[in-house]
Design goal:
41% helix; 13 strands; 13 helices; globular; TIM Barrel; Enolase-like, domain 1; alpha/beta
Length: 378
């Protein structure tokens, strides 16, 4: 069984409402759908986030895909290593680990999906098997104003989510209002906040003092991802546990954070590590340091939800409140399985591969939306 062709589709799936975070506002998920075809009729699917340019990411994927033709999906680790070497290291721009990971994540997913389908097994079985029957997610309320966020937070709480997670770093007054009003809306449910690099060390320390009375379970990435030292300083002085997110993409990043004791939790996703094998390595490093890993979400579809669910289910140190992004989409491109949370949970998903079926009508609509966007911007 050999890979014969690899093709891609550019997709744009609008959000139900604008997504607000410390670095701006996002109105849609832009992804590159990757399709790996084999000579025995199996097709594996994955997706890469199309930031900051769908066509640029697509071009890199096509270049990497040439290296895979004639090989089997079961060579995925070597193929991903060779793709990074060819695209980045061999050309002198060898500091591109983060961008390279975002580019190659969809190709890696598609190879694993194909391998699982060929083997007739779920990907989590190829990784050694699931250690839990369900994966738990946090409620992720949205809104422009504090009132909007609090109202949505209550909806998530009423729906049975035990953990609520909100974006701050949007301005001191608004941040304080969000924390205060969300806490009032959700009662004694667990509350997590994410400042997304918006603060310097002094601001972080001041804001931590201001919000600590609201019973915050953790504060995610308050300082710039450029400085491990800044995050370590904040953690040392903080009465609120600290999570590292934008600071950690690679296993090497996780090792550095653990050695510096700069975080109490690692937030990490398949798009950051760029491959399932590197994600599992990073999670293992965190586990040795006694830290849990929280699944991170980006501007993605149910493809990533299914992939992350299966990989996360194999981790002993998976967190009990992981990021879930499907609720943002006007429509998903996944027809099956049902990815709607039940009391903040999804079952560990089955296979073969990642076990999803694409909704090709939704894919066509998303492809048309991306085409219109590209035509308008050209």
């Amino acid at each position: 069984m050999k890979i014969t062709t690899i093709d891609t589709k550019l997709l744009r799936i609008p959000y139900k409402e604008p997504f607000h975070w410390a670095q701006g506002v996002i109105d849609a998920a832009h992804v590159v759908l990757v399709c790996v075809h084999t000579d025995d009729g199996v097709t594996g699917y994955g997706e890469s986030v199309g930031s900051a340019s769908l066509t640029a990411v697509q071009s890199f994927i096509h270049e990497a895909a040439r290296l895979c033709i004639g090989h089997t999906p079961f060579e995925v680790t070597r193929l991903m290593r060779d793709a990074y070497q060819h695209l980045f290291a061999a050309r002198g721009n060898c500091s591109a680990r983060r961008f390279g990971a975002l580019v190659l994540a969809g190709l890696d997913m598609a190879l694993w999906d194909a391998a699982g389908k060929v083997a007739g097994r779920a990907v989590h079985e190829l990784l050694g098997g699931a250690v839990r029957e369900t994966v738990r997610y946090f409620g992720f309320p949205q809104g422009d104003t504090a009132e909007d966020v609090a109202r949505d937070a209550k909806n998530w709480s009423d729906a049975g989510c035990d953990v609520i997670y909100v974006k701050i770093g949007r301005g001191e007054a608004l941040d304080l209002a969000i924390v205060e009003q969300v806490r009032a809306a959700i009662g004694n449910k667990r509350l997590r906040v994410d400042a997304n690099e918006a603060w310097d060390v002094l601001t972080a320390q001041r804001m931590i003092r201001a919000i600590s009375a609201s019973g915050i379970e953790f504060l995610e990435q308050p300082t710039s991802s450029d400085s491990l030292s800044a995050l370590a300083q904040v953690k040392t002085a903080s009465v609120i546990p600290i999570a590292a997110d934008q600071l950690v993409f690679t296993p090497e990043d996780v090792y550095a954070v653990c050695c510096a004791r700069a975080a109490d939790l690692i937030v990490l996703g398949l798009h950051e590590t760029g491959s399932i094998s590197r994600f599992c390595k990073a999670a293992a490093i965190a586990e040795v340091a006694g830290l849990n890993v929280c699944l991170h979400g980006l501007y993605e579809t149910g493809i990533t939800t299914c992939a992350s669910n299966q990989v996360g289910a194999t981790l002993e140190n998976l967190d009990d409140g992981n990021q879930y992004m499907n609720h943002l989409l006007v429509e998903d491109i996944i027809l099956h399985p049902n990815l709607k949370l039940t009391r903040g949970q999804l079952p560990t998903l089955g296979g073969p591969g990642f076990g999803f079926e694409l909704d090709w009508d939704a894919v066509a609509r998303a492809e048309e939306a991306a085409s219109k966007l590209l035509q308008h911007s050209s």
